[in-house]
Amino acid sequence: MRIWLVDAFADRPFHGNTAGVVPLRAWAPDAVLQAIAAENRCSETAFFVPTGLKGNYQLRWFTPAAEVPLCGHATLAAGAVLLTEIERDLDVVVFDTRSGPLVVRETPDGFTLDLPRRPRAVWTPPAAVMEALGDVRVIDAFTGEYATIVLSCEADVRAARPVMATIEAAIRAPRAGCLAITALADEDRPYDFVSRFFAPGVGIEEDPVTGSSFADLAPYWCDRLEKEAVTGFQASARGGLVRGLQTLSSTRLLGEAAVYLRGELDARVVRLLTAAEGAAPVAPVAPRSDDAERVVRIADLEDDAVAVFDLEAPDGEDQGVFIRERRIVVKDAPANDQRAADRRG
Question: Residue 273: pLDDT band by 50, 70, 90 thresholds?
Answer without folding.
Answer: confident
